[in-house]
Amino acid sequence: MTLSTVAHQVMWNRLISVVEEQAQALVRTAFSTSVREAGDLSAGVYNDRGEMLAQAVTGTPGHVHAMADAVPHFIRRIGRDHIHEGDVYITNDPWEGTDHLHDFTVCTPSFHRGKLRGFFACTAHIVEIGGRGFGADANSVYEEGLHVAAMKFADRGVLDETLIRIIRSNVRQPDQLVGDLHGLATGYEIGHRRLIDMMQEFDLADLTGISDFILTNSREATLARIAALPRAVATGRMTIDGYDRPIDLVVKVSFNGDHVLCDWAGTSGLDPKGINVPLVYTKAYACYALKCAIAAEIPNNAASLLSLIHISEPTRPY
Q1: What is the pLDDT along the chain (318 residues), one digit of tens a residue?
Q2: Parent domain of 47
Q3: In terms of Cα–Cα distance, which of 304, 313, 282, 308 is closest to 229?
Q4: Which candidate among 75, 203, 204, 245 keeps its CA 20 to 30 Å from the CA of 13?
């Protein structure tokens, strides 16, 4: 069955609605005020390769890239041979799934007719994670709270009670944290049901066609916006207080016709205190600012984000 461009556009809009409903379900079920009242969360749907197809309108800029980058890490860490229907994966790894320990990302595979068709993911800011908590006085990540590497929160529908006991015994507000994790996992149920409804309505065996349509059109539209800009270079710098010494933030933004390059050479290096930013968060906020200015109306997905900005990684960590 060959679907028209109009049908593909309808499905694209439907996917955005699906993940927005997923995000709103998380807001309604969350225990933490940061999620329930401040909307510090994000939700997205992905193809079976781990490429984000749509992201909820509800959410915060910092989660744009952090959550988008997380699913390929889950696929790599869990392994495709160990991905099963009913699984739920979890992490708060600042380098592979979030940006700091207070953010948890939950990822769930979506199966249809016995085959893996895609993934859903949610990220939310948890109020309490143990340790020193959210502050700048830590000397290492190990002081900041509980660090959960990418692993299964549920295996084929069965919760890992050992992991839950470990989490509960390491935080000050165990009911609140575990409640939020269940809320993150519940969002998948909403998204999955709506996705299957759409696939049945349009008689889709998989997401290959709609995935190609979304990513191709997003990439072309974003590149067209960049190509229309003058080829130029802009620089900026600022000094902030830091913890015990000032920190310089320096960036050079180059508009190169087919991409935008952000070069952070000259920025201060690793600080011994807990105020460093993982690269994924640098990407997230740089991309947010540029996307608002260049291609605000193009929905967030793997192609529109990756086509917009290239980051020149520093020779030393932030």
Answers
A1: 577 899 999 999 999 999 999 999 888 888 888 888 888 889 999 999 999 999 998 878 888 778 888 999 999 999 999 999 999 999 999 888 788 899 999 999 999 999 999 999 999 988 889 998 777 888 888 899 999 999 999 999 999 999 999 999 999 999 999 999 998 888 888 899 999 999 999 999 999 999 999 999 999 999 999 999 999 999 999 999 988 899 999 999 999 988 899 999 999 998 888 888 888 888 888 888 898 899 999 999 999 887 767 776 554 443
A2: 5-216
A3: 308
A4: 75
CA distances (Å), 94 to each of 30, 97, 101, 257, 281, in order? Answer: 21, 6, 6, 32, 9
**Residues 35, 123 within the same domain:** yes
On whether both 171 and 276 belong to a single domain, the answer is: no
Q: How far apart are CA 120 and CA 191, in angstroms?
A: 7
Q: Are residues 209 and 267 in the same domain?
A: no
Q: Diameter of the chain by CA atoms?
A: 64
Is 31 within 8 Å of 179 (Cβ atoms)? yes
Domain contains 107? yes
